[in-house]
Design a protein that fits this description.
213 residues; alpha+beta; Ribosomal Protein S5, domain 2; Alpha-Beta Plaits; 5-stranded antiparallel β-sheet; 10 strands
Length: 213
C-alpha cells in the first residue's frame, strides 16, 4: 500500500500576539516511537505550558490516529494539527506544537488558527514523498563486475545504502517490492546472471521505501 509522508523531519516557529508556537514534525512508524518522541520534546521544552500533538500511522491496512490539546481548550490544538495532517493525506507522521504563552489570550478561533498554521508550515518545510512496500537486501559482488553492478543499480533506481570492501564487495541495498521482482525476473532470464548470483541475495528486513517517480 502506497502512502504520502514527509521527506524529512523539520521545525518551524510562529509568533501570534507574543505567544510562540514551535512545531516539530517527525517521520514515525509506530505508536511507541511517537510516545518516545513526545517525552523527549516535553523534556526539551520543559518550561513550556503546552506541548500539543497529533499523529497518523499506517498499521497494515488500518490507520491509527491520535491528538492531544495538552491543557488547551478542547478542540483548539490537537484537532487542528490532526486536520492539517489529514488534509495533506499524510501517514507515519507526528507533529508536536509547543506553545510559550505570551500573556495575551487568543480565544478559541485564534488558537485554532495558530496551531493549524504552525503545523501546515512544518509540513511545507518537511516536504512530501510517496512511500511503498520494500526491503533492504545484502549482496556479494566480485570486484570485476562492480562497475556493471553499479550501472545496473543506477538504471533500475536501486538505492545503495552501504558498501563493504572485503574479499568481494558486500553491498547493502534498498528497493521496492516491484524492483525486487524485476531483479528476480532478470535472474531467471539470465540477463544479469554474470553480474548477480541469486544465491548471494539475502533479504535483511522489510520496510517502506521512497517511491521513485
Amino acid at each position: 500500500m502506497e502512502f504520502y509522508t514527509i521527506k524529512q523531519n523539520a521545525m518551524t516557529e510562529l509568533v501570534e500576539k507574543k505567544s510562540r508556537f514551535i512545531a516539530n514534525i517527525f517521520y514515525v512508524e509506530n505508536k511507541e516511537q511517537c510516545e518516545q518522541i513526545i517525552k523527549e520534546i516535553k523534556k526539551r521544552y520543559y518550561d513550556a505550558k503546552h506541548n500539543c500533538f497529533a499523529f497518523s500511522i499506517l498499521d497494515g491496512k488500518n490507520i491509527i490516529q491520535k491528538c492531544s490539546d495538552d491543557g488547551e481548550p478542547s478542540g483548539t490544538a490537537g484537532e487542528p494539527i490532526l486536520n492539517a495532517i489529514q488534509k495533506n493525506y499524510l501517514n507515519n507522521v507526528l507533529i508536536i506544537v509547543t506553545r510559550y504563552f505570551g500573556g495575551i489570550l487568543l480565544g478559541a478561533g485564534g488558537l485554532i488558527r495558530a496551531y493549524s498554521n504552525t503545523a501546515i508550515e512544518a509540513i511545507n518545510k518537511a516536504g512530501k514523498i510517496i512511500k511503498e512496500p520494500g526491503m533492504e537486501i545484502q549482496m556479494n559482488i566480485v570486484y570485476q563486475e562492480n562497475e556493471k553492478f553499479k550501472y545496473y543499480c543506477e538504471k533500475s533506481n536501486i538505492k545503495i545504502i552501504d558498501a563493504e570492501y572485503l574479499e568481494n564487495i558486500l553491498y547493502k541495498l534498498e528497493m521496492s517490492e516491484k524492483q525486487y521482482e524485476k531483479l528476480e525476473n532478470s535472474l531467471k532470464e539470465n540477463n544479469e546472471q554474470k553480474i548477480i548470483d541469486k544465491h548471494n541475495i539475502k533479504i535483511l528486513c522489510r520496510k517502506y521505501v521512497e517511491k521513485q517517480i
